[in-house]
Amino acid sequence: MTTAFVAATTTASATATAAEPLPGITPRAETPVLHDDDAGGNADADDPAIWRNTADPARSLVIATAKEGGLRAYDLDARPVQSVAAPPAQGPDDAPGRFNNVDLVRGLKLSSGAADLAVTSDRGHDKLRFYRIDRDRSGGPLTDVTDPAAPRVFSADQDEVNEQRTAYGLATWQDKASGRSYALVSQRERTGVALLELLPASGGKVTYRKVRTLDLPSSFRLPNGTTWSPCAEPGELPQVEGMVVDPANGTLYAGQEDVGIWRMRADLTGTPELVDKVREYGVPGVYDEETEECEAGADPGYGGKRITADVEGLTLVHEEDGDGYLLASSQGDNTFAAYDRELSDRNEYEGGFRVTPAGGALDGSEECDGAAALNESLGSKYPNGLLVVQDGHDAPGDGDRPATNFKFVDLGKVMKTLDD
């Protein structure tokens, strides 16, 4: 489909001043380290979601993806509760299951009754996977309820799946007007986003159907009259990963990693607007096949002032008065940017922070991929809510082994910092 795009004029990008040092907030806990190697089961922390146990908030869960390592559930002390393996490869030459992003759906009506679900994008198979959440179930709270006949999201056949231009970023949305539930899924190495309606299948299983797709741009007209595309490996386009939907107004925020943050209708109709740009927006680059890196040219000065590529995990903080924040992981400089959630304020930039070490054994967050916030009481440990962020380089680490995990942060500290 053909869609027009406009760049929104916001305080975030139009009137930003020189960056000042951002305040640091320390985490209270961290999950056990994951290692993305054979010995560690190729587990790599990526994206979290927070499930609130309404009957007993202190027994709530953090559900998070570990890529080829599958899915993890943690309690509020950051201790593992359950590990769910990703599905095996279809055949010996096919890609294995790889869980990229996760989000939640409350009270989806299944043939077996209403259920809370964890929904994850399986990049390895180009499908969505569904896990029913039952906190006190013997064997663990997560049960696979994916319909075996669920279709591929973007690929026509297994050969296309193996190219891995597959289901990547993910956000769920429950439309208040219709009562229907959806997932918005982005495509790896492409600019496409698909809207999928979630549907009950027989035997208490869950499937989906594609409603429509939207392609964000891959090239941009600059003020000097030239056309710019983010530098990438040949054949790759600027992909979207971090996404979140504001349920109050059905607004989707999508982070195009080397471009910026888009705002659009969650039903993928209308005209997307670029809320803020990464600092590198407009910078020319040439891909070097030898180093597999981009050689950047001179900065023409068209980028934003708040986020450094990649823009990654997006999450919302809701406040009782209808206000709140859109939080974005600025992966390139290890910071988090906060924007006003209210559309009437045009998502104005409200401040930022870092997640910094609490001590030698509890480090901060670097190169954060995913984030999730919940501004509700979670018992005595987090009475003011919880922010969970991925840490791309856990310290002190284990030699040269890749080490990732998730940090748990008191959301009350974040709110106080942003309100000061």
Verbal overview:
By secondary structure, this protein is mostly beta strands. The longest helix has 9 residues, at 411-419. Helices cover 4% and strands 41% of the residues. The strands form 8 sheets. A 5-stranded mixed sheet has the order 1-22-21-20-19, with no helix packed on it. Strands 2-28-27-26-25 form a 5-stranded mixed sheet. Strands 3, 4, 29, 30 and 31 form a 5-stranded antiparallel sheet that branches. The termini are far apart. The chain contains 3 helices and 31 strands.
Overall pLDDT metric:
94
- What's the main sheet like? 5 strands, mixed
Structural classification: mainly beta
Estimated helix fraction? under 10%
Number of strands: 31
Low-confidence parts: 1-18
- Give the count of helical stretches: 3
The end-to-end distance, rounded to whole angstroms, is 45 Å
Strand content: 35-45%
What's this, in brief?
By secondary structure, this protein is mainly beta. Helices cover 4% and strands 41% of the residues.
Q: Helices, strands, pairings?
A:
Layout: E1 6-7, H1 11-14, E2 24-25, E3 29-30, E4 34-35, E5 48-51, E6 61-65, E7 71-74, E8 80-84, E9 99-110, E10 113-122, E11 127-133, E12 142-144, H2 158-162, E13 167-174, E14 181-187, E15 192-200, E16 206-215, E17 220-221, E18 227-228, E19 240-246, E20 251-256, E21 260-265, E22 273-277, E23 285-288, E24 293-296, E25 311-318, E26 324-330, E27 335-340, E28 349-355, E29 371-374, E30 386-391, E31 403-410, H3 411-419
Parallel strand pairs: 1-22, 2-28
Antiparallel strand pairs: 3-31, 4-31, 5-6, 6-7, 7-8, 9-10, 10-11, 11-12, 13-14, 14-15, 15-16, 17-18, 19-20, 20-21, 21-22, 23-24, 25-26, 26-27, 27-28, 29-30, 30-31
